[in-house]
Amino acid sequence: MMLYGKKQWLDSQYGGVALRILWIAATLVIVSIAIYWFLDKGQQNQEVLNRKATEISEYGLLIALERLKDNPSRTSEIAKTEYEGGWYTATLKRLSSNDTVFLAVESIGHAGSVSKKQACTLRLEINGADSVWIRQSIK
């Protein structure tokens, strides 16, 4: 009858192979967990940047519409403006179709490496001496 001692367990002839396989398996599990954690963290960060870029672009659109309220004949660009750790730009372009005048308002918000665009189209309605911009669509 043979008894396996400590030296024989580590010897490749008796159990060293099993021990090495166990170490390799444990290493693979640890590496897999680390990769999963880093990918999950990156995805969460990307989601935060997406939400932030959307919020910034919506804010830029709001500012453009407020400036339009102050000056209804405005058709220019709002230059790069810093806001909440990101920045936005906005453009106002006058378009016409038949006898109808439209104004395309577009804002692009940036947060980190993410950019999001918000846009709306306004239609000019004229009643006598008064004129007002009516929202036609929003994207």
Summed up, what is this model?
The protein has two helices and five strands. It is α+β, with helices and mostly antiparallel strands. It has a five-stranded antiparallel β-sheet.
**Number of continuous helical runs:** 2
Largest sheet features = 5 strands, antiparallel
Relative strand content: 35-45%
Derived from helix and strand composition plus strand pairing, the structural class reads: alpha+beta
Strand order of the largest sheet: 1-2-3-4-5
Average pLDDT over all residues: 84
Uncertain residue segments: none
Q: Give the topology string: H per helix, E per strand.
A: HHEEEEE
Shape: rod-shaped
Radius of gyration: 31 Å
Proportion in helices? 40-55%
Quick one: how many beta strands? Answer: 5
Q: Could you tell me how far the N terminus lies from the C terminus, measured between alpha carbons in angstroms?
A: 82 Å
What does this structure look like?
The chain has two helices and five strands; from the N terminus they run ααβββββ. It is α+β, with helices and mostly antiparallel strands and 139 residues long. It has a five-stranded antiparallel β-sheet. The longest helix is centred in the first third of the chain and has 55 residues.
